[in-house]
Amino acid sequence: MTDPASSPAAWPFGPDVTIVDIRAQELRFREPLEKLLANPVVPMSLERIEKKNHGLSGRVVVVCEVGLRSNVAAMYLRADGLDAEHLPGGARALRRDSLT
């Protein structure tokens, strides 16, 4: 396994970006994003984000499995005043990009 900091998937995110992983717990355990990214990863449910019970600050990138739910989560976080975006293609895109 390569060092996450040197993987192709690491480059889009600066060191100040927090990755918010909203995938199901089973997927987070099976395929941790920490193996693909050097950034800090915070596991969280979409429900917590919707209820504004996230405790996040700063710049965040939200990741789900395919990029759909993360887009919704990023919209909620932007409405809360955060600098938030989602990762198009989600964790699948990260896995694919890390193989190339």
Could you characterize what this model shows?
Residues 13-99 form the Rhodanese domain. It comes from Deinococcus peraridilitoris (strain DSM 19664 / LMG 22246 / CIP 109416 / KR-200). One of its GO terms (molecular function) is transferase activity. InterPro entries: Rhodanese-like_dom (IPR001763), Rhodanese-like_dom_sf (IPR036873). With 100 residues, the chain is α/β, with parallel strands linked by helices. The protein has a single domain, classed as 3-Layer(aba) Sandwich (Oxidized Rhodanese, domain 1). Helix content is 33%, strand content 16%. A four-stranded parallel sheet has the order 2-1-3-4, covered by helices on one side. The longest helix is centred in the last third of the chain and has 12 residues, at 68-79. It is globular and about 35 Å long. It starts with 17 loop residues before the first strand and ends with a helix.
